[in-house]
Write a structure and sequence with these properties.
Length: 121
């Protein structure tokens, strides 16, 4: 489910759109109330369009595609161990040694281990 704030903003967009209010005016209202936590103009415009077309739900639709399943605790531990052993590993070398994609390695390094740069060559 969307966060509570996003859910409330989508509710407001839906109601205001049903009253014929345009996305720019809706965004101004959202920015007054939510300041920096407001949705972007592009997002407001897209949701307003969906509601004008008859959409009822405030929830995101299911996304197609396979979820990242290579980012597991065991793979994270393996990547951490290999980086601690040799900080000169490249993401490609780590991916080959662990048997996962380079994108999964990047996700583990950046999101899981909070590492952006291990060692310069």
């Amino acid at each position: 489910m969307a966060s509570n704030l996003k859910f409330k903003q989508r509710s407001y967009i839906k109601i205001r759109t049903l009253f014929g209010i345009g996305p720019k005016d809706i965004l101004i209202d959202l920015e007054v109330v939510n300041r920096d936590a407001s949705l972007s103009y592009t997002t407001v415009k897209e949701w307003a369009k969906r509601f004008r077309e008859g959409r009822e739900s405030l929830e995101n639709e299911e996304r197609i595609g396979r979820p990242i399943s290579a980012v597991t605790s065991s793979n994270t531990s393996e990547i951490r161990w290999r980086v601690e052993e040799d900080p000169h590993f490249t993401a490609e070398e780590l991916a080959m040694s662990v048997g996962i994609s380079t994108g999964a390695v990047h996700s583990i390094l950046i999101d899981g281990l909070r590492v952006t740069k291990i060692c310069s060559r």
